[in-house]
Design goal:
Blueprint (H helix, E strand, L loop, with lengths): L4 H10 L9 E4 L4 E3 L13 E4 L2 H6 L3 E2 L14 H12 L7 H6 L4 H12 L3 H18 L4 H7 L5 H12 L10 E8 L6 E5 L4 E6 L5 H11 L2 E5 L3 H14 L16 H10 L8 E2 H8 L5 H9 L12 E2 L12 H11 L6
Parallel strand pairs: 2-4, 5-8, 9-10
Antiparallel strand pairs: 1-2, 1-3, 5-6, 6-7
Helix pairs in contact: 6-8, 11-12, 12-13
The chain binds zinc ion.
Zinc ion binds next to loops.
């Protein structure tokens, strides 16, 4: 399923990274296909055609561009990094200094660049995060602090204590009462998203390029009294699976535990949002009535905008009275895509 050609062409000219993974462009005059952000000179509007996957472009006889390498999926973890990550997951005290990386035939600078770009932190900080996240879970589930420190490759208890506190904001021994928000990236056809989860459920799902993201993260940190730490969480597997089914039009409702702290009014608005059926829309006015505050249209719209769990709490299903899309934190083109995906026009 594709977006409007005008939107795609302007994304192409702007080299807008939020469209990465969303479409692929074939250049008729050269027979080459590119990502939206390719730095090569942009073709004229009449010389391009669009595809949703690289496979389609190949099927139409196009060859991948050597500049932007469209066959490497944007945001997808490359195999050489996946191997390293697997090693870290199975062996919790793995230390990967530059020397160890070179031993494995990996250029440390390359892995640093990849992590900075895709996780916003350095590779070493990411490794630290994973270790602390795992240690937190172990102590929470009754392992002793000292055993946990040793298990995770810390040579001294004080070193562990310091690293743990720096990352989580509390001492290892307070893990029973303290909490953290595990964060990861999830790929979708609309671009990469940040997902956050506590032990109880998903508390954040937001496009990584969304302007509100920083604010939402700060709010969650305060509301849940928890720091964000990269790592793995059982809820991510279910989320990833159900999102894939949703985008494949094989799922209409989500069955995932959510953690949605907020004011009574916000919680009420978000709850009502979840009752709008798949494929249906509602106006802000209708939603205000539903919430029991017919005059609070603006407040309802604000609460919609404050929704931290995109797609699953379907704020994209609320539109203006005129039928126009009005606002969407993730960008109107994404709102349009989600509504089109859910509409009958696409052969449900
Ligand atoms: Zn290219």
């Amino acid at each position: 399923m594709l977006l409007d050609n005008k939107i795609m062409y302007s994304a192409l000219v702007e080299k807008d990274p939020s469209f990465e993974g969303v479409f692929i462009v074939g250049v008729k005059t050269t027979g080459i296909f590119c990502r939206p952000t390719c730095t090569a000179r942009k073709p004229k509007v009449e010389n391009v055609e669009y595809f949703s996957t690289t496979k389609e472009a190949l099927d139409h006889g196009y060859r991948p561009c050597k500049v932007c390498r469209p066959m490497e999926l944007y945001g997808e973890t490359p195999a050489w990094i996946e191997d390293i990550l697997k090693e870290i997951r199975t062996n919790s005290d793995t230390k990967l200094k530059d020397y160890d990386l070179r031993q494995r035939g990996i250029d440390p600078a390359r892995i640093r660049r990849w992590f900075k770009k895709h996780h916003g932190i350095t590779f070493q900080a990411y490794l630290r995060s994973l270790r602390i996240n795992r240690a937190f879970g172990q102590i929470k589930h009754n392992r002793s602090v000292i055993d946990t420190a040793l298990d995770n490759g810390y040579e001294s208890l004080s070193g562990f204590h310091e690293a743990f506190k720096k990352t989580t904001g509390f001492a290892p021994s307070d893990s029973k009462t303290g909490s953290i928000i595990t964060i990861t990236r999830i790929l979708t056809p609309l671009g990469p998203m940040f997902a956050g989860a506590t032990e109880e459920g998903i508390c954040l799902l937001e496009f990584t390029d969304r302007r509100m993201l920083e604010t939402q993260i700060a709010r969650l940190r305060k509301l849940l009294k928890a720091e964000f730490v990269s790592g793995d969480n059982v809820h991510f597997h279910e989320l990833d699976k159900q999102l894939k089914e949703y985008f494949d039009k094989k799922r209409k409702t989500f069955d995932i535990s959510l953690v949605v702290p907020g004011t009574k009014f916000q919680v009420n608005v978000w709850e009502k949002l979840q009752r709008i059926p798949y494929g249906k829309t509602r106006t802000y006015q209708q939603q205000a009535i539903e919430v029991g505050k017919p005059n609070a249209v603006r407040a309802v719209a604000t609460a919609n905008g404050d929704n931290r769990i995109s797609i699953i709490i379907p704020c994209h299903r609320v539109i203006a009275k005129s039928g126009e899309l009005a606002g969407y934190g993730g960008g109107l083109w994404r709102k349009q895509y989600l509504l089109d995906l859910e509409s009958h026009a696409y052969g449900q």
